[in-house]
Design a protein that fits this description.
The protein is globular and about 65 Å long. The protein has three domains: about 60 residues, Nucleic acid-binding proteins (OB fold (Dihydrolipoamide Acetyltransferase, E2P), Beta Barrel), CATH 2.40.50.140; about 190 residues, 3-Layer(aba) Sandwich (Rossmann fold); about 110 residues, OB fold (Dihydrolipoamide Acetyltransferase, E2P) (Beta Barrel). The model has no long low-confidence stretch (mean pLDDT about 95). Helices cover about 25% and strands about 30% of the residues. By secondary structure, the chain is of the alpha/beta class. Helix 1 packs parallel to helix 9 and helix 8 packs parallel to helix 9. The protein has nine helices and 21 strands. Strand 10, helix 3 and strand 11 form a beta-alpha-beta unit.
């Protein structure tokens, strides 16, 4: 057992203190805490510990609003007040770019979330049939043990209102032990959709029960029995709709298994920031890599000569084409293919004035060499992972691009995660 003063926070959410010169990472701590902790893993140059007791709490610390905080693996920072969360996200974001990409300056003020709770429009609940009944909630930190919950403070209120009913419905099913997960999502128009996951091989009585339940309750309900290609509609409307421009002037649909940002309000801010950064005059050709269902492509298309979107998940491309059609956007073309291959193939035919990237958490390192070779005048990089962003920026900055600005957006309050928008310009031929 050791006593530490927590000096800072690390990417990943843990507090950091030092003992005899060694960094000690302790979850659920705040800068300024004096804590007693127990070393769990000694890694040589650093160690990982578990919190035993907060001896002297930091002024940044608060009582977590959620009764499951510290046990549930979903939120890492509920014990920090909201201002401290924004401050440390901004610090960690700037520090990551400086340390790993050599970025010195150009980091704009952090965009905090207007609503730090009740913001999640999509939730994946884990389920388990226990000796004491049907359990619905989230995995305990570092395990597959499901913590039963009555509500989640970061979930949209419409989702929370439905949790008791979902529990009752699934508990009364003929095979609750076959349900490991249920996905719940709401949209900008008040609609709600459920996807129930069923362990294969499927019990047909459960399928029949869910179909009758959906009909009786008027649910938009889908069943998934493995990978996404096993999705089956049981009842209701397939699509949910988001308003990326803040009103119904543009309605973008996404289907079950598809992707949309979980924080709809902050997504609107991010889309607006992308439009302002693009600063299109109407005669540009834009390439949107990892375009999904058109979250950025279609707002950009209203201001460009042409937008070409690329995504390797074909159902998302089908949705992007549908969204272009129903929003009467005729200058957006979408391709279902790998982004690295598409970048070489498409740019061999015609040039682009702007490339937008919005990759998954793993980043877009596979396309960096192609981007350097093509010498596109401007790049916009939307990232949900600062370390992979820094890794990808390094070859660009050393390969003829100047970082104009980079800005963090808080799409995930109560966690350490940060979204960002980075603008780069070509400086050499």
């Amino acid at each position: 057992m050791i006593t530490l003063t927590i000096d800072s926070l690390a990417f990943g959410g843990n507090g950091v203190g030092r003992c005899e010169g060694k960094a000690i990472f302790v979850p659920d701590t705040a800068p300024g805490d004096t804590v007693r902790c127990r070393i769990r893993r000694n890694k040589g140059r650093y160690a990982e510990a578990e919190l035993v007791e907060v001896i002297d709490p930091s002024p940044l610390r608060r009582t977590p609003p959620c009764p499951y905080a510290g046990r549930c693996g979903g939120c890492q920072w509920q014990h920090l007040d909201d201002a401290a969360q924004s401050d440390w996200k901004a610090r960690l974001f700037a520090d990551t770019l400086s340390r790993h990409a050599g970025v010195d300056g150009g980091v704009k003020p952090f965009v905090a979330a207007p609503e730090p709770f009740a913001y999640r429009s999509r939730i994946q609940f884990k389920c388990r049939q226990s000796e004491n009944g049907f359990v619905l909630g989230f995995y305990r930190k570092g395990s597959h043990y499901v913590i039963d919950i009555d509500a989640c403070p970061v979930a949209d209120r419409r989702i929370n209102d439905l949790i008791p009913q979902i529990k009752a419905w699934l508990a009364a099913s003929p095979a609750p032990q076959q349900i490991p997960q249920v996905d719940v999502a709401v949209d900008d128009e008040g609609a709600l959709r459920l996807v129930v996951h069923q362990i294969h091989p499927a019990d047909p009585s459960l399928v029949d029960y869910l179909r009758q339940l959906a009909l009786r309750e008027g649910l938009n309900l889908f069943l998934q029995q493995g990978r996404k290609n096993t999705l089956t509609k049981l009842h209701g409307d397939e699509n949910l709709f988001i308003h990326p421009l803040g009103d119904a002037s543009q309605r973008l649909a996404y289907g079950p298994g598809g992707f949309s940002q979980i924080n709809l309000a902050q997504n609107r801010r991010l889309v607006q920031a992308v439009l302002e950064a693009a600063n299109l005059k109407g005669d540009e050709r834009v390439l949107d890599l990892f375009c999904g269902m058109g979250n950025f492509s279609l707002p950009l298309a209203r201001q460009a000569k042409e937008v070409v979107g690329v995504e390797d998940y074909s159902p998302s491309i089908a949705m992007a084409r549908y969204n272009a059609e129903v929003n009467t956007i005729k200058n957006a073309i979408f391709h279902a293919c790998d982004s690295a291959e598409a970048l070489d193939d498409l740019t061999a035919q015609e040039s682009f004035d702007l490339v937008l990237l919005d990759p998954p958490r793993s980043g877009a390192y596979a396309v960096m060499k192609s981007l350097q070779r093509l010498k596109v005048p401007r790049l916009l990089y939307v990232s949900c992972d600062p370390p992979s962003l820094a890794r990808d920026l390094k070859p660009l900055i050393h390969g003829g691009y100047r970082l104009v600005s980079s800005q963090g957006f808080d799409l995930f309050p109560q966690t350490y995660h940060t979204e960002s928008l980075t603008i780069l310009e070509r400086t050499s031929a």
